[in-house]
Design goal:
Elements (H helix, E strand, L loop, with lengths): L2 H17 L15 E6 L4 E4 L9 E9 L5 E8 L14 E4 L4 E4 L8 E9 L2 E4 L3 E6 L6 E8 L7 E12 L5 E4 L7 E9 L6 E11 L3 E7 L2 E2 L3 E3 L7 H33 L1 H21 L1
Parallel strand pairs: 1-9
Antiparallel strand pairs: 2-6, 3-4, 3-7, 5-6, 7-8, 7-9, 10-11, 11-14, 12-15, 13-14, 15-16, 15-17
Bound molecules: 2-acetamido-2-deoxy-beta-D-glucopyranose (NAG) (8 copies).
Length: 295
Amino acid sequence: MNLTLLCSYAHRYSLALVMTLVLVTATDDDSGPPTNITAVLGDTTTFRCHIQKHGIPVTRLYIQRVLKDSQEIFINGFDSTRKLDASPEYQNRTKVNKTDLSMEMTNVSVSDEGLYKCVVFFSTVLKEMPKIYLKVTANYSIPTMEKKCSKHGDGAAGKSCQLSCSSVGGYPQSAVKWAGLNLSLINVIHNESSENPYSKTWTINQTIMYNCDQPTNVSCAVEGAVSPAFSICEKEPFSIKVMIAIVVVLVFVLLLILVLVLMNHYYRQQTSSSGGRAEYAIAQSDDCHLQLKSV
Ligand SMILES: *[C@@H]1O[C@H](CO)[C@@H](O)[C@H](O)[C@H]1NC(C)=O
Ligand SMILES: *[C@@H]1O[C@H](CO)[C@@H](O)[C@H](O)[C@H]1NC(C)=O
Ligand SMILES: *[C@@H]1O[C@H](CO)[C@@H](O)[C@H](O)[C@H]1NC(C)=O
Ligand SMILES: *[C@@H]1O[C@H](CO)[C@@H](O)[C@H](O)[C@H]1NC(C)=O
Ligand SMILES: *[C@@H]1O[C@H](CO)[C@@H](O)[C@H](O)[C@H]1NC(C)=O
Ligand SMILES: *[C@@H]1O[C@H](CO)[C@@H](O)[C@H](O)[C@H]1NC(C)=O
Ligand SMILES: *[C@@H]1O[C@H](CO)[C@@H](O)[C@H](O)[C@H]1NC(C)=O
Ligand SMILES: *[C@@H]1O[C@H](CO)[C@@H](O)[C@H](O)[C@H]1NC(C)=O
C-alpha cells in the first residue's frame, strides 16, 4: 500500500464516520474537568473551543455531543480541505466561527443540556479540548396563589387557611418556598410536580394548611419568581355587617330627631294660627256643597 492510497483510505474512513454522525474518539487527551456554560431556554449560546496553541493553523474542527457510554454525535465543524455539513438536526441552529473556533447555537432547548467537546486538528495532530457542559435553565412564571380561610370548626381562636401556590414553565425542577409563615406550622397536603413532555419544563403546585391567629402577610416563591403578598388572618373587629348595623342605627336616630323637630314645629304653628285653618275648612266644605249642587 503506498502513501497516497493510505491517505485516501483514511480520508474516506473519516468521511464515513461523519456521515454516520457518530464519532468514537480515543480518550487520549481529555484534559481537566469540563467548563460549565449556562443558557436560558430559547436563547442563543456559544461553545468556545479554547485553543492554547496559537500560531499553529487549525485544519479541522469537530464539535461533538458526548452521550452516555462515550458515544459521540457530530454537530458541526469545518474542514479546511473540504465542505463539511452540519448534522441535519443542527443545520439551522448552529454556526461555526472559523476565526475564534466557536460555535453559536440558537433556540437552546432543555434537551440540549449535556456534555460537548471540541476535537481540533492542527495539521495532522488531533487534540481534544476540555469538555464543555451546557446547563439549561428556564424561568418559572410568577407563582399564582389562592387562599381559602375559615374559622376553626371547634370554635378555637384564629383561622385555618388553605393556601395553594403554583408556577409553570421552569427548569430544572424546583420546589415552592413560603415566606411569612412559621415553617414548623405548615402542613403540606398536596405537592405536585409535572414535566411537560415536549418542552421538558416543570409545573409545580403545592397546597398547605396553616393555622394562624395573628395577621400575616404571606407570599410564595419558586426559584426567583415571587408571588404578590397576600394577607391572611386579618383582625376583623368591624366587619361590614357591624358597620352597616351602626350606620342603620345612626340613620334611624337622625330620622327620629328630625321627626320630633318637625312635630314640635307643626304643633307650634297649629296653636298660633288655629283660626285661619278653621276658615279654610269651612271654605272647603262650601266648595263641596257647590260641587254637589252642580251634579
Ligand atoms: C460545573 O458544574 C458542576 C455541577 O453541575 C460542578 O460540580 C463543577 O465544579 C462545575 N465546574 C466548574 C469548572 O465550575
Ligand atoms: C432548516 O431550514 C430549511 C430552510 O428554512 C428547512 O427547509 C428545513 O426543514 C430546516 N431543517 C430543520 C431540521 O428544521
Ligand atoms: C468570528 O469571531 C471573531 C472574533 O470573535 C469575530 O470578529 C467575527 O466577526 C466572527 N465571525 C463571524 C462570521 O461571526
Ligand atoms: C425553538 O425550538 C422549539 C422546540 O424546541 C420550537 O417549537 C420553536 O418553534 C423553535 N423556535 C424558533 C424561533 O426556531
Ligand atoms: C413556630 O411555631 C413553633 C410551634 O408553635 C414555636 O415554638 C416557634 O417559636 C415558632 N417560631 C416562630 C419564628 O414564630
Ligand atoms: C414537593 O415535591 C418536590 C418535587 O418532587 C420535592 O423536591 C419537595 O421536597 C416536596 N416537598 C414536600 C414538602 O414534600
Ligand atoms: C394546584 O392544586 C390545587 C389543589 O389540588 C388545585 O386546587 C389548583 O387548581 C392547582 N393549581 C394548578 C394551577 O394546577
Ligand atoms: C401586611 O402588608 C400591609 C401592606 O403592605 C401592611 O400595611 C401590614 O402592616 C402588613 N402586615 C403585617 C402583619 O406585616
